[in-house]
Design goal:
By secondary structure, the protein is α+β, with helices and mostly antiparallel strands. The protein has helices at residues 3-18, 37-61, 70-81, 116-125, 127-130, 136-154, 187-201, 207-220, 241-258, 261-267, 274-281, 285-296, and strands at 88-90, 102-103, 158-160, 172-173, 180-185, 235-239, 302-306. Strands 1, 2, 3, 4, 5, 6 and 7 form a 7-stranded mixed sheet that branches. Strand 4 (172-173) and strand 5 form a beta hairpin.
Length: 313
């Protein structure tokens, strides 16, 4: 058994027990501060797993030599993986939250009531005195943190099935969980959204016109409206390595053939239409258009992967 399988198996068992709670507690905003022995037990189970995952990820991502204090290890992992910015959306039919639609498990002030690891340590060392800290809110933050750390250890790649008209890249996905939806960063969506935001900010067009443009753009492309920033997304979409290599080779071949990068990108779906291509290059270009269509239609060209911070971020 892989180490990652061992950890995600433990997460799944904890999540299953967590999802039994709505039978006894109404999951709404006013209940976030409720505490109980069962919640306390789940927080401690989460904390134990989180502690082990911190060490496992530190060993893999940073160094096999651990710092003397676990707080240093946690801080280094937070910086390395940009944990503080990550968002999880709460998504389950038994949830009735209005103000708490999402959580940021790692965005907390040290030793505050939202510092799930600090609460875990308090409960572990003196449960009776700190029992009131074992709240539903802390449990959700603990479970969210445990889920995120497991995803970094699993490092899964999720292939999207492609159609001729392009992938429908999801705004959120929920791998290995029935509690959370994970935001997905899409560069295409980001670029389109930035253009629309700029037009709105600069009053280039009216609000009604902007809405019409937005509807047209998002209905004709694989882009989807997302309210999440790049640094908030645990996952991102990208070309698979094999398909990226094919695109690069195809573009180079077309550029050499037509002596124009513009023509090469036009074949891959730029603004130039078929008539203009035919007018400039004759009927022989049809073979290249067919080759382009075959390349675009290839299945599994897009994958969802961890949105790891780039060096220098």
């Amino acid at each position: 058994m892989r180490r990652s399988d061992l950890f995600i198996s433990s997460y799944n068992r904890i999540e299953q027990d967590f999802l039994l709670l709505p039978q006894y507690i109404y999951f709404c905003d006013s209940q976030l501060e409720v505490y109980s022995p069962i919640i306390c037990d789940l927080i401690i189970r989460c904390g134990t797993e989180i502690e082990s995952l911190y060490k496992e990820l530190y060993r893999i991502k940073i160094s096999t030599k651990f710092p003397e204090k676990i707080g240093v290890m946690i801080s280094e992992l937070n910086r390395s993986l940009n944990l503080e910015s990550l968002v999880l959306v709460l998504k389950n039919y038994s949830f009735n939250f209005k103000n708490t639609q999402s959580i940021r498990p790692f965005s907390y002030i040290n030793k505050s009531d939202e510092d799930f690891y600090h609460v875990f340590c308090c409960l572990k060392h003196d449960r009776l005195v700190n029992f009131h800290k074992a709240t539903l809110k802390v449990l959700m933050l603990s479970l969210g943190a445990l889920y995120i750390l497991n995803q970094y250890l699993l490092d899964e790649k999720i292939l999207l099935e492609n159609s001729f008209f392009g992938e429908k890249i999801p705004v959120t996905i929920s791998p290995s969980t029935n509690v959370f939806a994970v935001p997905v960063y899409s560069e295409i969506s980001d670029k389109v959204q930035n253009c629309l935001d700029t037009a709105q900010r600069d009053d280039v067009v009216s609000t009604n016109t902007l809405k019409q443009i937005e509807g047209r753009v998002f209905s004709r492309t694989s882009a989807r409206v997302s309210s999440f920033k790049k640094e908030e997304c645990l996952y991102k979409s990208e070309y698979t390595p094999g398909y990226a290599a094919k695109i690069k080779a195809f573009s180079k071949n077309m550029e050499d053939k037509y002596h124009s990068k513009t023509m090469a990108t036009a074949l891959l779906g730029d603004d130039k239409d078929t008539e203009e291509l035919l007018a400039q290059n004759g009927p022989g270009v049809l073979n290249d258009i067919v080759a382009t269509m075959e390349l675009v239609a290839e299945r599994n060209r897009i994958q969802i992967v961890l949105n790891l911070p780039e060096q220098g971020d």
